[in-house]
Hints:
By secondary structure, the chain is α+β, with helices and mostly antiparallel strands. The chain is built from 11 helices and 10 strands. The chain has 2 domains: 11-47 and 141-309, GAF domain (Beta-Lactamase, 2-Layer Sandwich), CATH 3.30.450.40; 51-129, Winged helix-like DNA-binding domain superfamily/Winged helix DNA-binding domain (Arc Repressor Mutant, subunit A, Orthogonal Bundle). The protein has helices at 38-41, 48-60, 67-77, 88-95, 99-112, 129-140, 142-158, 200-206, 211-220, 234-247, 289-309, and strands at 24-25, 30-31, 115-117, 124-126, 161-168, 171-178, 193-195, 250-253, 260-268, 274-283. A hairpin with a 6-residue loop joins strand 3 and strand 4 (124-126).
Amino acid sequence: MTSECEMATNPKKPDRSPRPGVPVTAATGSATHSSGDRSTDSLGDIPANDAGNAASAARAADPLFVGSLEKGMRVLQAFGALHDTLGLTDLAALTGMGKSAAQRFAHTWEQLGYLEKDARSRRFRLAPKVIELGYFFLRNDDLVAVAAPHLVALRERCDVAVNLSVRLGADMIYLLRLPSRQLTLSEMLPGRRMPAWCNSAGRMLLAQLSDDDLQALLAASHIEAYTARTETDRAALAATIRQARMDGYALAEDQVLLNQTGAAVIVKGSTQRPLAAISASAAASDYPAERMVREVVPQLLSAANAIARG
């Protein structure tokens, strides 16, 4: 008997077409972001460390680059996964600027509504207004709009968590996350950034790199185990990623969470430029690797083609 997950359906299309200038071709099953989409520009670029050095040199020679704005952004970026609240001493240390400069930038962000300061501890934290910028991006991004109904349909058919993600240097970031019943809060929120080597979506994104760029990226990456089964050997990771490139999908088991299986495929543009990865994850007790490959991977590939066609 064929499971509901194995039965293809045609989800309702979004109420918008891809933005002007975004070519769509049914022949290749693909669609491209415009060149202005910075979230996907890095997919085929050089590794993060080389790209960072090149970007720093370019900024230093750019007469239009506003260094003070970059310093101000450093203050917001200091509030990462490990830092919920920060004092001025913390901000100065994390941003590499003097305490007086950190104070001025933090005060400015507070006045603009992007930081809040606790009156008693005098420590800062991100304010809800920060979320608004992400909302504007997600609301207006054509790839997200086109992908959403297909990912919703996939989640409903297979009862798995589904995601849309792009590569940022050596990392990947989730643009859209549709959770299953078992996921935790951190696994439900878009915007989460993770090392690309550690999960199926990130590995599928890395599979779009050349072998030389992949080796350089892994060599420069900080690799540590999330679980007792996390693969941390760089040679083994490179082999796994190359295999994903050959297979057309990536599979990961117990890499970030125990008893979790994930699979991912790539969405490519009309010139075969990779745009994003779509992935699914579920408890291994519900979807062991064999079932994930048999039932969910074909659905992911079908969704990727549908997303590409717009």
